[in-house]
Specification:
The chain is an alpha+beta fold. It has 3 domains: 2-46; 65-80 and 198-226; 85-167 and 178-192, 2-Layer Sandwich (Alpha-Beta Plaits). Helix content is 57%, strand content 19%. It is built from 7 helices and 5 strands, in the order ααααβββαββαα. Strands 1, 2, 3, 4 and 5 form a 5-stranded antiparallel sheet that branches. Strand 2 (121-123) and strand 3 (126-138) form a beta hairpin. The chain is rod-shaped, with a radius of gyration of 39 Å.
Length: 236
């Protein structure tokens, strides 16, 4: 039917139709060949532009490296390790904490009855070492003991404090000029660095220093990552 319609068309129209079909075929062929290439180049151009923009952002962040190094040096200069237990091994850290608490109690008039180490537990990158002491002390002496623990280095935390009067019966009156004693049970804890794998080869002091430096470096890296992520966030 289409052939009959074309046959009845005058020669000029048939030539125009043939030229139009040829042009359409060429356009279709070019579209099939060139459109994927154009889309591929567009995708690569966008990817290159995105990577260049990200690289520029990272360069701006890396330009802040001297400031971060200066901040790290300031942190190291403050010697934050003095606020932690010196020993990294759990048993040695427990003994160290026991000696500190024992000295605070006995030097301020307390009489120790029992002491016991608690199980060491993890808290982030650090170890929590705890001890339990039971002792007798008057109220003024207990005040001095707590003040001594509060001002200690490394930092100590009194987790629990239980006080029981020795003479709690009705009608008891303390002797004039003599403070009654209390039965005190106290749990004290402190933070310590975890033991390094090669602490025996390089010494405990070197292991503690490396742990502190790694913690500071990780803090700086996280700050840089957050800065880069904030810079990459799309703006409204």
């Amino acid at each position: 039917m289409i052939n009959d319609v074309i046959a009845r068309m005058p020669p000029p129209q048939r030539r125009a139709l043939a030229i139009g079909l040829a042009v359409l075929a060429v356009v279709v062929v070019l579209g099939v060949l060139l459109v994927p290439v154009w889309l591929l180049h567009t995708r690569y151009d966008e990817a290159i532009a995105s990577l260049e923009d990200r690289l520029a952002r990272y360069r701006r962040v890396s330009a802040q490296a001297p400031e971060y190094r200066k901040a790290l040096e300031q942190v190291r200069a403050k010697d934050g390790r003095r606020f932690f237990l010196k020993n990294t091994a759990a048993n040695l850290a427990g003994v160290e904490l026991q000696e500190i608490v024992r000295s605070a109690i006995e030097s301020n008039g307390g009489r120790i009855t029992t002491s016991q180490n608690q199980a060491t537990r993890d808290e982030g990158h650090y170890k929590v070492v705890g001890v339990t002491f039971q002792f007798f002390a008057t109220t003024p002496n207990l005040q001095r003991i707590l003040y001594s623990l509060e001002t200690q280095q490394p930092y100590l935390v009194v987790d629990t404090l239980t006080l029981r009067p020795l003479n709690a019966f009705r009608g008891f009156r303390p002797v004039a000029g003599q403070d009654p004693e209390l039965n005190v049970q106290m749990d004290v804890s402190a933070l310590g660095f975890p033991a390094a794998e090669k602490a025996g080869e390089k010494g405990a002091g070197k292991a503690v220093e490396q742990s502190a430096e790694k913690t500071a470096d990780k803090t700086a890296d996280k700050t840089a990552d957050k800065t880069a992520a904030t810079s990459e966030a799309p703006r409204p």
